[in-house]
Structure formats: C-alpha cells, structure tokens
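Here is an idea for our session: we take a single protein and study its fold together. Which protein we use is up to you, so please pick one and set it down. Once you have written the record down, we can walk along the chain together:
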Amino acid sequence: MEHKYTNDLVHETSPYLLQHAHNPVNWNAWNENTLAKAKAENKLILISVGYAACHWCHVMEHESFEDSLVAQIMNKNFINIKVDREERPDVDQVYMNAVQLMTGRGGWPLNAIALPDGRPVWGETYVPKKQWISALEQISELYAEKPEKLYEYADKLEQGLKTLDIVNLNTDAPVFESAYINNAVKIWSDQFDNDQGGMNRAPKFMMPSNYHFLLRYAYQTNDEKLQDYVNLTLKKMAYGGVFDQIGGGFSRYSVDEKWHVPHFEKMLYDNGQLVSLYSDAYLITKNDLYKDIVTETLAYIKREMTTENGAFYSSLDADSNTPEGELEEGAFYVWQKDSLKTILQNDYELFSDYYNINSYGLWEHGNYVLIRKDDDEKIIKKYDLTKDLLTEKKKHWKQILTAIRNKRSKPRLDDKTLTSWNALMLKGYIDAYRVLGEPSYLASAEKNANFIIKNQLREDGGLFHNYKNGKSNINGYLEDYAATIDAFLALYENTLNETWLTTARDLANYTFDHFFNEESKMFYFTSDEDESLVSRSIEYRDNVIPASNSIMAKNLFKLSHYFDNVHYRETAISMLNNVKPEMQEYPSAYSNWLDLMLNYTNPYYEVAIVGEDAKQKITELNKTYIPNKLIAGSTTDNNLPLLESRYKPNNTFIYVCVNKACKLPVSEVDKAIKLLKE
C-alpha cells in the first residue's frame, strides 16, 4: 500500500507507534538520538504519550496528527516524539507527574512540551484541534521571544517533580497492629457503594488489589458485613457489561455506577489479576458464578491473547469498525433488539429477561450492552426451568452470538508482550490451577514462565521489559522484576520445582544491585543502567496494578522465610514502615501494603511438606483458603532452610511453623489445617 507520508516510527515494533508511522507529523521514537537532535537543533520537544487501546488517543490522532496543517506547525517548531506508555512507563511517569502538577489532572493521550534538555514546560491531556494549534503557536512564540521565561518555569517545575514520589526513611520503630488496619478499613468504608458494589462514584474501576485485600481482611476478621460488601462487588462486576457476557474477559472500567457500559478496551493486566481475585473468592464461597468468571476469562485469554510460544498479548482496542466503516467505541460488542429477536427466535423472551434487553440494559442509539440483574435461581423459578436446561441455553446463546460477532470487524490487537503484565497473567493461571486443579492452567503458567526465562531473562541476570517479533530491546523496570518474582514464587509453591524459587531469589538480588536506594530502603522504578530522566521516581502507591515497591516488599517478606535471609526481612519491614504514615489517609492507594501488614498482625505460617506424597498433600491443602501461609516442599532430601533434615523415607510429613517454632509434624492434611487455624 502506498502511503503519502512516512516517519521514523515505521522502524518500531509497538503497534501504537506503528499506528502513527504514516501521519504527516515527523514523529520520532524516544531514544538518545532523538534527544540529542533536540539539543543540537535547540528545538522544543513535543512528547505525546498514549497506548494502542486508548479511544481518545485515536480521536486526537484523527483530528490533529493526521491533519497536514497541524503537522506543518508541529514539524516546524518541535522535535516530535511519540511514546507508547506501556513500553516506556518511566517516560510516561515523568511527564504524567508534570502534567498533574501543572493542571491538577492526568490521563491519556498525554501531551507535554519540553525544553531541548527534556524538562517539561507545558502539558495537557486530550486537546481539540483548534486549541491544540493555538497552544503550539503560543509556546513557540514564547520560546522564540522570551525563552528565559520557559527556563525559569522549567526550573521551578523540576524542583516540584523531584519532591514527588520521594520516600524518606522512617526512623520510628516499626509497629504493625491490627487496630491500625481496622481504622484504615473504617475510613475506607465511608466510600463503599453498598447498593451496586465498588466505590460510591462513577466511573467504576475494578481495582483487583483493593478487593483482594478486603476479601482476605474480612475473612480473617470474620467481618460478615465486609464479606457481604466484597461479594456484592464481585457479583455486580460479574453481572455487569464490564464483563463480556458472550466472549468472557473484563474491560477496563464502567462509565456508570452499575458496572454496565464499559470503556470497551480489554487489558491483560486487569484480567490476570481478576482471575486471581475470583479464584480466591471461589475458594472461600464455592459460588459457581466466580468459577464461571475464572473459566470464561481464561478461555478468552487462551483464544484471543495467547501466542504460540506461550506469551500473552497486551490489549484489545475499545474501538472497531461499524458495518458502515466508521470507527466506533464498542461496535464489536453491542446488540440491537431487532437482530436479537431474529437470531434467538423462541428463546428471545428468556434471553432478553436474562440479559436485560430493556431500559435497564439500553446504552444509546438503540444499542444494548448485555447486563445481568437476577441470579440463575430466580430465572429458573420464573420460567420453570431446570438448572441444566438454563446452562445449556446459555451455552447455546453464547455459541450463536459468538459466531455472529466474529463476522464483525474485530477490535485492534496490541500484540506486543510486556514482562510485568505477562507475570500478572501467569499468576492468574497459577492461582486458578491452585483453586480449580485444572491441569491445562498449570501448563499455560509453566509455558509462560519458560517464555520469560528463555526470551526475557538476560545473561547478566536482568530482565527485558518488552518482546515483539522475536525482539526484546527495552531494559526492565522494577514492575517487571516484582511481578515476575511474585509469579515464580507462586509457581514454586504449586509445583515444588526449585528453579522458580532460586530464579526469584536471583532476580531479587539483581534489583538490590540496580534499583535499590540505600538511604530510603526503597527501590527506584528504573535501573541505574538506564539513561537518566528529569527525575528518578519511586513508585509506592497502589493503583489498578499494585505499586512495584509493594509487590517487592511482599516478595522480600516471603523470600526472607524461604532463605532465612535477614537482609530481605529487614528491608521488607523498613519499606512497609516507610509508607505507614500515609496509609490511613487514603487506604485504597495502599491496599497491597495493608495486605502485607496483615502478615505481621496475624500469625504467619511456614508449611513445610516433605516426602514422596508432598505434591498430593499440597493439592489437598490448597482446597482451604489460608492466606497467611507459605509452602515449601520436596519429595526428596533437601537443604533449603525450611526443609533441611526433614526427609524421612516412606513417610510424608507436614511441618507447621510460626516465628521459627514448629509444631510436631503431622501426616494428615486436615490435622495440619487445624494447626493453621489455631
């Protein structure tokens, strides 16, 4: 195909960057050559950050970046850089912080203008074409006539950026008490939506880490009211349009309060974490709805998001083409009443009641987003059905509608692979295997782990962040190490394959060498081997994905038990103590830290299982929800600290230990569970 314009992005592998390779804007990728060019030519840098599944990024591209007049202004006055935020979260973080300081808000697309040295002086999110042109002209004029004003502003902003995400060492003695967590949950509960679940506002994000912590806390404290709230949230999310009722898998968030109309992009990181969350929720409640969510989501991941070599793709776009060829958000997923009547015929009445083809399920312009309101029992009673018949009908509906949907224009796939997100999905698979015992889930987890070892782990012990077309070229961030260590520890606990445990330890040691800040006892987001940016941040607030530092602190807590390592243990305590002063103010941004704190306020058990039946006993033990434990095990003699001198031929013993004191070994799992619940 002949293109009128081609820019430097044509050499990139990121689908998001490639989408802009034929804009009239002279886009460059973020690299040392581009930054050197800006300095050499003494030109302002225009940095535009987005990602492939971002709806408003596409809108701005269509309005402004495909427009030759806009391109003319951009090319004349700026060195233009396009950034895929998923490939370069470090760059995104710096300019996002700057835009939030300047405007009080953030989001994508993220557009910033910086001096030739990279220091930001202006920023905004989505900007309509007319205002975009006006802003570019004003800043260009100011730079030409009074550059000192921009340099003065950059100095102030730089100081502001350097004070953000600074964590000081907390020299107070570390005291972690249940009362502190109870109070944090009490403050947090004021924001709960006890009618629709989630937080009492819209849009509604799933925030898996929040509900994973609340699920555990409610269980461990026997707080029935909180258990009801968490289960309400999980049910409403599962019933909502935010879950793809036909094809499985979750979108990023819902724009309304009832989880109905999603922002239709599907991200790998949401689905990986939600599989883990619903797996644990099923383990506690045995609610079949949760099991269905896990199996349907993993079926979607296998079908749409998995490569032949076991890696996972990043996302599916929110937008796809309508039959008329217009790019429209949600076009692939929505239904019209008349076509459903034709497709479903005699089943239409039942289907429309089940999925609310009525005012409750109507979105806009005659489009319906499927949403559930009633549980299966109510529908079975109302229509005098059996459970098996309803299950059969649902299966049939999904097959018919899937076949029709697959004839539509599909949303664009972001087919790059990111190590951190792959590790979150790997963990989802291993958690689903732990709870449901499905061997194919373990096979997918191991295949992905081997992909990471083979393709993303370098000879120097470091990780790459990205992979596409057989190529990995971006140095890993703390999030890659934290998520991979976490996943490998879970893999070890379920397989007893020590390779995963020792690799997790080696990756942790690598992060101490290249990411650790000795003064604050926290980890930087970027390696000391990366080129320096305006500021080097420490990511410690939990978001949709928990902060890399909170995952890392949990990893070190576990590794300290496995290897009896004082340095790991003391670092984990220091890290938690450092963020403790902030945690009660805004608990939802510290849920993974609060989860770690539960390990200190409750007994934390080391369960060592040694003998030829160790794997079977682990499988049996995993049928009970016990979040405050780790498992070590071996089928042979082993010199790991928790296993040393414990192997007895012809016997399999379970040792339950807490605070370096062990109960007498038992051979029956139910007796071990009693010891764990004392």
